[in-house]
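Hello again, I could really use a second opinion on something today. I've been staring at a protein lately and its backbone has me curious. Please have a think about how the structure follows from the sequence. I owe you a coffee for this, so here goes:
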Amino acid sequence: MSAHPARTAHPYRDLDVIDARAPRFNQAVVGGLSLIAVLTGWWPILGLLALQLGLGLRFGRRWCLACLAYFELVQPRVGEGPIEDARPPRFANQVGLIVLSAATVAHVAGLAVLGSALGLLVAGLALLAAATGFCAGCQLYRLGARLRGVRPHGFNRIELSEVGPVRPGPGDLVVAFSHSLCTACRDLAHELEASGRRFVMVDVRERPELARKYGIAIVPTAVTVAADGRVISRLSG
């Protein structure tokens, strides 16, 4: 029997989604090393962490040592976790890169108190995310996505002729933007089917033009629309 359980999402090719456990593992590494850097005074560790985040963001997960450790050593033994949209944790890494870089610059400039404070901020938020799953950077991304979604060209109306065959019937229609590998997207489809509601799933990987047109910043994103395509309410995303 293979030592590697079957993966639904390839860690180095399916970059628009990610095993939800991978960001938490990365946060544990970043948080733990940041805390060590502050407590011991070895502040160059903060700069090395910033460099690692920057390389991973620029060149992909194969350049991220924590990512490699998770996907090559941990995931094959514990199995694949829930698959989620990769954009929120990627944004969180961008925030971490900025703060860690600022902490390093502060130390180089002789502002040790400021550098340590920024290092503690990263350590606290990263360890909180690793322990509880609450990711402050991810929440900032989702907040920004919701704010972008209220723009007039966002979700006021959907052209139903573009989203595919729609089963006729009474009641409002649910249009759900999803990804074929997304665990929460599959759960949403099952819930909608069990409820008996009319719905149509739009795979953003197969229909990227619709994702761009409607500004889909996170999956699953689901809205209830009237017969004329007018958006009535937002269910998720």
User: Anything to note?
Assistant: The mean pLDDT is 89. Residues 17-145 form one domain.
